[in-house]
Amino acid sequence: MTEHILIVEDEPKLSAILRDYLTRDGFSVTISDRGDRVMDWLESNRADLILLDLMLPGTDGLTLCKAIRAQSAVPIIMTTARVEEIDRLLGLELGADDYICKPYSPREVVARVKAVLRRTRHNAQPEPEAQLQLAEQSNRVHFGQQDIELTAIEMRLLQVLMQHPGRIYTRDQLMDVIYPDRRLVSDRTIDSHVKNLRRKLATLAPEHDFVRSVYGAGYKYE
Questions:
Q1: Taking a C-beta distance cutoff of 8 angstroms, is the pair 197, 158 a contact?
Q2: Separation CA 118–CA 42 (nearest Å)
Q3: Which residues of 82-118 are buried (b: 16+ CB within 10 A; e: fewer)?
Q4: What is the pLDDT of residue 164?
C-alpha cells in the first residue's frame, strides 16, 4: 500500500515542492494550509506521517501536534523557521517524532520522512529476539534466555519509555512519573537512574542500545 503523507504548510510554493519530491519517491500526498482543518480531515482520511509546520493560520502547530497525539500515534515531523531551543523541546515534548528547521533541502525532508517511517514500522513489528520482556511483579527484565533484576524505580522508568518507542521524554516528565509527590530531589537524579538502567541492560544485551539520550532534550527507548 502506498504510504500517505499529510503536509500541513501555509506556504504554497514550499508545500508544492515537498509534494513533488515525495510523490517522485512513491508517496501519495495531501496538502492542508490551515491548522484548524486537520483534525476534521483525519477523522475520515488516513495519514501514515504528518509534516507539520509550527506557524499556521487557524490552529498553531504545537497545539495541533498535542491534539493529534492525544488520539493517534501517527508519526509527526515538525517544521519551522523558528530555531529557539524552547520551541524545539516543546515540539518534541508534545509527541513529535522529529524536527526540521527551515530553510531545509527537500531531499533532507524526504530522507527524514523515510527514516521516521522505517523506525515506526520497526517499532510496530519488532523482531521477537530483540525484545525486552518485563516481569513487573518481580522487577525483572528478560531478553532471550537471560534476565536481570531492576530496582522499582528503574522498572518504572523503563515501563514509561517503552510505552512510546522513539518518543523523547524530558527529565521533568520522567520526574513527574517517578516522583509524583515532587519530593525534593535533583533532576539529575533521573540521569543517575538512567545510567544505572543502561548499564544493567548492557549486561543483558551488549549489542543493543535500548535507552538512548538525546542531547539537550531527554531520553527515549528504541
A1: yes
A2: 22
A3: eeeeebbbbbbbbbbbbbbeeeeeeeebbebbeebbe
A4: 82
Average pLDDT, the chain: 85
Assign 165 to helix, strand or coil.
coil
pLDDT band at 133 (very low <50, low <70, confident <90, very high): confident
In this predicted model, what pLDDT tens digit does every residue of 45-62 receive, in sequence order? 999 999 999 899 999 998
- The pLDDT value recorded for residue 36 is 95
Torsion sign (Cα): 19, 21, 22, 24: positive
pLDDT digits (tens, 9 = 90+) for 160-217: 898 888 888 888 888 877 776 656 666 678 889 999 999 999 998 887 888 988 877 8
How far from the centroid of its chain's Cα atoms is residue 69's Cα? 10
Domain spans of the chain, in order of start: 4-124, 128-221
Nearest to 146 by CA among 161, 132, 163, 125: 132
Give me 27's grid cell.
508517496
Distance from the Cα of residue 20 to its chain's centroid = 26
Q: How far apart are CA 110 and CA 67, in angstroms?
A: 25
Nearest to 215 by CA among 54, 85, 122: 85
- Domain 128-221 sits in CATH at 1.10.10.10
- Superfamily of segment(s) 4-124: Response regulator (3.40.50.2300)
- Predicted pLDDT at 97: 85
Q: What is the dihedral of CA 92, 97, 103, 107, to 10 degrees?
A: 170
Q: How far apart are CA 104 and CA 81, in angstroms?
A: 9
